[in-house]
Amino acid sequence: MQDGSMNISKLEEAVGPYRPSNHLLTGNDMARVACGDCAGCSKCCHEMTDTIKVSPYDLFLLRQGLGLSFEQLLERYLDLTVDHGVILPHLAMEGEDEHCVFLGENGRCTIHPYRTGLCRTFPLGRNYDNETHALTYFVLEGACYKKDQTKVKVKKWLDTPRLAEYEAYLVDWHYYVKDLQERSMELLSSGKQEEAKALAMALLQQFYYAEYDLEGDFYEQYYRIRRQAAR
Ligand code: SF4
Ligand code: SF4
Question: Model-level pTM?
Answer without folding.
Answer: 0.92
